[in-house]
Amino acid sequence: MTNRICSALFSIAVIFLTLWLPVRAQQTPAAITSDPPRDKEFPAAMEAPDIVSHGARLNAVFYLASGAGPHPVVLLLHGFPGNEQNMDLAYAMRRAGWNVLVPHYRGSWGSAGTFSFTNAIEDTQAAVQFLRDPENAKKYRTDASKIVVIGHSMGGFLGTYATAHDAAILGVAMISAWNLGPAAARPDSEQRTKSFHDASPRLAGTTPEGMLAEAKKNAAKWNYVDWAPELKSRPVLVVESSDGNVPDNKAMAEALRKAGDPHVTEIAMETDHGYNDHRIALQVAVLSWLQSFGIVQGQS
Fold this sequence. Notes:
By secondary structure, this protein is of the alpha/beta class.
């Protein structure tokens, strides 16, 4: 009798695995695990273009997908100060056929000028204009009409600002997005003080007190939840981790739904702000969202 039960359980397990594994494989984009075929004439490459923002040179890295293109492009924005660069996302997206531009804001990571939140907003817009320049689009095999913005933490705030103020950007992904204005307006906390003091030495020409004063001064107009009406016609990905940004992230997703956006994707992960033990899960979430645009590389 015991042998029959074991045999039956084994058969059920085999059936379950047979049904489950193909679904699992289908859910994982191929770019997570496989390199694309090498194009000898137009191989995948990495460039380091100079982006000029208000007279200052921005240090940037441009990951170019294999193939003649033109390729759709992701503007990938890092946080404050940007210790997590999300390069694994850049490589995965490039394998999936997207060009990926990673700029560094003025006063950060080798870029000229002085860091400020206002400057970072302007620098993000300068990066978009760089992508739209016809000469740059031709040189880097980019389709300037197919720009998507993806930002982590402060980069999520900057990307949302850029997308809300630029109707031609196709969509935005907010990864644990920091809602700068409301966060600055809240009562002082040990965590916020530490964050500003830890970031300051890595950012040129600024101080923790100066940055916080700038954020507080602009708190009323730097609330991304207010921009939901400008975003409601476009796909928005909201990814949440187990950090202090969750209430703002959820408020944004809800505001988009109330505004009538049918393209909101909200994903919550039990991980830290840097997604240190969920990097593959983050890649899957981002690539699956990009697939929903239905963009075929090389077709305008």
